[in-house]
Amino acid sequence: MKSESVDNKEKELLKILILGDPVLRQKSTPVENIDGELVEFIKKMADTMYQAKGLGLAANQVGVAKRFFIMDLAQREGSPKLEVFINPEIVEAEGETTYEEGCLSIPGYAAKVKRHARLFIKAYDLDGNPFERELEGLAAIAFQHELDHLDGILFVDRLSPLKKALFKKWWKKHGKKK
Ligand code: NI
Question: I want to staple 58 with a disulfide (CB 3.0 to 4.6 A). Which of 71, 131, 149, 177 is the partner?
Answer without folding.
Answer: 149
